[in-house]
Design the sequence.
């Protein structure tokens, strides 16, 4: 699975602003509603229910919120580079400025886990994340995220 299979140029956001985690998830839900033609309220509910189980802030300024959503036909990714980092209750307590959100169909099964693993591998690469942080606009972010070798560590 490639990132370009789940992320479109219209689902990349630069300079997103939110004062806290809950508002950020609301902003992401609203962004997703426009991209995937879903009800923002239902997307927020699904993401927030997952987030209440444990934070999806994985450390190093990165969060990967994800949820399964009824009536979704395909896996949808949304990427946001925040204008200012937000407390996301991450495992390392560092505030988050890079967010890759995933929504999968309710019956996605293994595809949900494959997508989550692919995004996780991508965002674990520190030098790649620094390139994302240095990017100046949505087009540059999308190009970085969808390079065939995006996030691949050099041997």
Sequence:
């Amino acid at each position: 699975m490639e990132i370009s299979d789940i992320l479109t140029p219209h689902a990349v956001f630069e300079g997103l602003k939110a004062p806290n985690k809950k508002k950020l998830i609301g902003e992401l839900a609203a962004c997703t509603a426009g991209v995937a033609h879903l009800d923002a309220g239902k997307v927020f509910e699904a993401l927030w229910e997952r987030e209440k189980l444990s934070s999806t802030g994985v450390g190093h300024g990165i969060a990967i919120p994800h949820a399964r959503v009824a009536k979704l036909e395909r896996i949808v990714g949304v990427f946001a580079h925040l204008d200012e980092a937000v407390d996301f209750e991450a495992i390392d307590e560092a505030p988050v400025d890079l967010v890759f959100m995933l929504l999968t169909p309710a019956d996605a099964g293994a595809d949900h886990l494959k997508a989550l693993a692919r995004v996780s591998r991508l965002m674990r690469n520190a030098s790649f994340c620094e390139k994302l942080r240095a990017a100046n606009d949505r087009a540059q972010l999308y190009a970085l995220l969808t390079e065939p070798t995006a996030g691949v560590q050099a041997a």
